[in-house]
Write a structure and sequence with these properties.
The chain is 33% helix and 19% strand. It has 408 residues and is an alpha/beta fold. Strand 8, helix 10 (256-264) and strand 9 form a beta-alpha-beta unit.
Length: 408
Amino acid sequence: MRNCGIVLQGIMKYCVLIIDGAAGLPIAGRESKTSLELAATPNLDALAREGWLGRARTVPPGMEPGSAVACMSVLGYDPAVYYKGRASIEAGSLGISIGRGEAVFRCNLVNVSDGKMRDYSAGHITSDEAKEIIATLNEKLGSDAVRFFPGVSYRHILKLKGGEDALQAACTPPHDIPGRPVADYLPKGPGSEVLRDLMARSEAVLKDHPVNIARKARGELPATTIWLFWGSGPVPPMPAFKKVYGLKAALTSGVDLLRGLAKMSGMTILDIKGVTDGPDSDNVAQAEGALAALKKHDLVVIHIEAPDEAGHTGNIDGKVGAIKKIDAEVVSRLRQWRGDDLRVLVMPDHPTPISVRTHTPEPVPLLLWGKGIKANGAARFTEAEAARTGILIEHGYKIMGQLVGKPA
């Protein structure tokens, strides 16, 4: 791996900013520019000019290009070794144990209309609304062997006792099939029967649910069914971040997945009011809360979900706006840091191109900036500019070691 020019010296603090799904492909009708190129990002661009820019492959070949794999890489863990399924990570965040003979699945609330996947998030249903629906699902479909757990917004967990066979089923994430006939993408193969049965039975439960009646009255999409995928069983423990990198770390995010990864790696989970998984998230509070945590921690991770959500819905202006907001409200505060010496890593976890509305495995731009990091001549924080440097880190999990001065 090419050295990024870090010179170790003095007491140092670290910040990792994960701009989820911000990378992408050129957009037709928008001068063939990506969302990063379309967004006005004076602070990111200043960091790029002063820092070290390149690209990294966060998704190992053959692995699913999702945030679980990609964010595990960004946090400094090899997903080829430690990734055993996304649902188990989210379950861990919610305090759900997974015993021998048990399996957990991600359980989305979705909207299917005319047999097609209209919205993988049921119109980004609120957590409070979803909690009511999950309670009803437990009442109507739950048993000693079947239990639903509420998460954030549309993202929830199904736990099956004696459900190991279901882990053999081939499942498709709903955000991979926008506008497509769902019949072609229902769980298939051995073990799929129980999943398909629960999905089918959920339709009657949700059809006249009070939450959905109220949503339709407001002109919002109802949750018409559950969608089950990303199954996993018990997972082996990951080594603590402090043990691997010698630093006390904390993380802030609006999604269970990242909080689950933090819990698995022994990071402190920061509870900052106003942090959500959408465009309404209070970026200022998140940035200030994270930087304040550096008084008691050596490293903080700031994960922001909004660009990824906009990418999944094909919302160009939403994605560009989310990136601009992160630049103005978060990156600006990193530049203005007045404390111990600071080093920063900024990168998306994976691309979520507007044209495909789901994750892809291509390398993403990465930026290292701060005390002891030498500039390498970049002009902007964009995919093309990162590619122009000619730098490609094939094993993304090694970036953390470069940031903190402990290269693998």
